[in-house]
Amino acid sequence: MVFEDDALAKAVFFLSTTETRSQLYRLLQYGSKFTKWAFIQHWQLDRDAANAPSNVTQFFRFLQFLEMADLYRNVREPLRAVRVLRRLRITCFFFFYLIENYVVLRTRVLGVSPRDPFIRRLRRGCNGFWLMSILLAFPLDRMMQRGTMLSTIKKLLDLPVASVGLSGLRVSDGLFGALGLASAQIGVYTRWVEVMAKFQQQHLKRLGATPDIA
Question: Do 22 and 63 form a contact (C-beta atoms < 8 A)?
């Protein structure tokens, strides 16, 4: 099997990073939210059955704050300003996932109502950290010269979702899920392009290091 055509090698390389898995988790999250809305609105599916995809997504995201801690300690950018912004952004994600896990523990395991005022404040705090991470991404992309039209569109789609979550306002789950799903699809696609470019670079290095056999 030729290495460059090995789909399994590409898949393993793609899934080997925390950022890739984070994008896939978001795709699952908003895909399940939009699917839940569609099932309830158009097929009159039982609400408990429609919650199943969301429950699976929460399982995937459990303890993801530990991955953020690992990302934080591996920040190695040469510019101090970039290091500070990256660590601030990772810190925002750390607390986002930590609080989210605590909310899941309280509501799913300890039986606290999701409508409890304290739980609602925690959920709003989650979205506050997410909103801060989005805003930090704009100057970070500019400094690292990595901003593209697709990445900018993704962040612009994320902004209203995070803002609504922070405000605590109720909006259509269909609209909320559609915005998040579109953003997540862009995130997975752009991540795939970025990771495959690194994959090809490694492949070329391996070819260069392979001795010719007479």
Answer: no
* Structure-token pair, residue 2: 């030729």
Residue 128 pLDDT exceeds 80: yes
Q: Tell me, what DSSP letter sits at residue 212?
A: P
Q: How far is CA 13 from CA 16, 67, 134, in A?
A: 5, 17, 26
Asked if 164 and 13 count as a contact pair (C-beta separation under 8 A), the reply is no
Measure the CA–CA gap between 189 and 176, rounded to whole angstroms.
20
Percent of the chain as helix, strand, coil, to the nearest 5: 80, 0, 20
- How far is 133 from 151, CA to CA, in rounded Å? 14
Query: Among 32-41, 93-102, 126-135, 205-214, which is the least confidently predicted range?
Result: 205-214
Both tokens of 55, joined, read 């429950």
Angstrom CA distances, 136 to 75, 154, 194, stand at 16, 14, 20
Cβ atoms of 96 and 73 closer than 8 Å: no
Q: Is 137 helix (H, G, I), strand (E, B) or coil?
A: helix
Global pTM reads 0.77
**Residue 54 pLDDT > 80:** no
Nearest to 123 by CA among 89, 104, 100: 100
Residue with the two structure tokens 């704050």: 65
Domain parsing of the chain, residue ranges: 17-46+54-191
